Amino acid sequence: MRKSVALVFGLIFLLFATVQYNDPGPQVWVPIYLAAVMACAWAGLGWGNGAFLA
Predict the structure, then answer these.
(1) Contact 40, 9 (CB under 8 A)
(2) What is the crossing angle of helices 26-45 and 2-19, to 10°?
(3) Structural domains in the chain (count)
């Protein structure tokens, strides 16, 4: 269940990152959303610190 939730949130954050290219300040928001995608991927794979990813 936890892996599927991490996958869903990762895909949602990836979608958010792709639509930010139409925003006036994508150089700020795209890396923030991609960091969230990475955190979701690490949580889904079971990598990383549990306190940070919880």
Answers:
(1) yes
(2) 170
(3) 1
